Amino acid sequence: MSYLVIQGIEVETPDLKEIAKLSGSTRIEGIGNNAFRLHEYKTQQGVPEYCAKAELDFAFVPVPRKLSDFGLVAMDMDSTLITIECIDEIADIQGIKPQVAAITASAMRGEIEYHESLRRRLALLEGLDETALLRVYEERLRLSPGAERMLERLRSLGIKTLLVSSGFTFFTERLKHRLSLDYTLSSELEFKNGKLTGKVVGRIVDAQIKAAKLRELRDALRLKREQIIAFGDGANDLAMMAEASVSIAYHAKPVVRENATYCFDYVGLDGLLSLYA
C-alpha cells in the first residue's frame, strides 16, 4: 500500500483533485490541518511540477510506516530548528552582517569548505562582547514553525532528539534546556575577558563530525538506520542526512533538496507528523 502526502499552508480542493488525477490515486483522505493522504498512487509524473506551481509540499511514501517505528530524529539548528543563522545575527550587531552572511550562504551552497568559511566569519567577529550573543538569543532567535508541536509528539512516543550544529554551544545548550532535547553537539566559541577571540575551543563541528555523532548515537541506542530521521538545510548537513533512512530538506538549498528523501518548502517542521500519521 503506497500513498502520496500533500500538505501546505492552504490546500485547495481543486488542486487535490488534479493531483489525484495526475498520480492515479484512488482515494483522498484528510489527515490533519491542510494535510491529505492520496492512496495507491500509480505514477509520480507531473506531481512535483504541479505542486511547485500550487506551493504545496508532496511526499511519495512507498512503504507505510508509523512515527513510532522511528527511534531518533536528528536536526540542524540554524535555519532548520530555528529561523535565523546565529552567526549572521551576531554580525549584524557588529554592523558587518552583509560580509558574514555572504560567506554563510556560499558555505551552505557547498562553494566554500566549511572550516574555511567559519574561520573567515569568526575572524570578522574578533573583539565582539559576549553580551551580543545573549541579545541574539533573547531578541532574534525564533523557532521554526511547527517545531514545538513536532518535538512534543516525538517526546510522547519516546523518540530521542539530537540537535547537531556547526553553530555554537551558547545557543544549542539553551535550546536543549528550553525544548527538552536529548542530545546536542556544536562548536564552542572562545572568549577572553568577555570578548570573542575569533576562534573556537576544540574541533569545529563540520559535516563529517555531524555524521559521526549520528552514527555514535545510533549504535549507543541500538537503533538501525531504518529508525533514523534527519533534517537539514545546508551542504554541511548532507553527510548526516545520508546516515538516516529518511532525510528531510527543510526550506533548503538546491544541493540538499536534490539529495533528500523529502522536501519541506512550505510547511513547518511538524509536516513530519503528516508523513507518518
Explained architecture:
With 277 residues, the chain is an alpha/beta fold. The protein has two domains: 3-64, 2-Layer Sandwich (Alpha-Beta Plaits); 69-84 and 143-275, 3-Layer(aba) Sandwich (Rossmann fold). Helix content is 42%, strand content 23%. It has 13 helices and eleven strands. The chain has helices at residues 13-23, 47-54, 77-81, 86-94, 97-108, 114-124, 131-140, 147-156, 169-179, 207-220, 238-242, 254-257, 271-275; strands at 3-7, 27-32, 35-39, 57-61, 72-75, 160-168, 183-192, 195-201, 228-232, 246-250, 262-264. It has a seven-stranded mixed β-sheet with strand order 8-7-6-5-9-10-11, with helices on both faces. Strands 2-3-1-4 form a four-stranded antiparallel β-sheet. Helix 9 links the parallel strand 6 and strand 7 (183-192). Helix 4 crosses helix 7. The longest helix is centred in the C-terminal third of the chain and has 14 residues, at 207-220. It is elongated. It starts with a strand and ends with a helix. The model has no long low-confidence stretch (mean pLDDT 94).
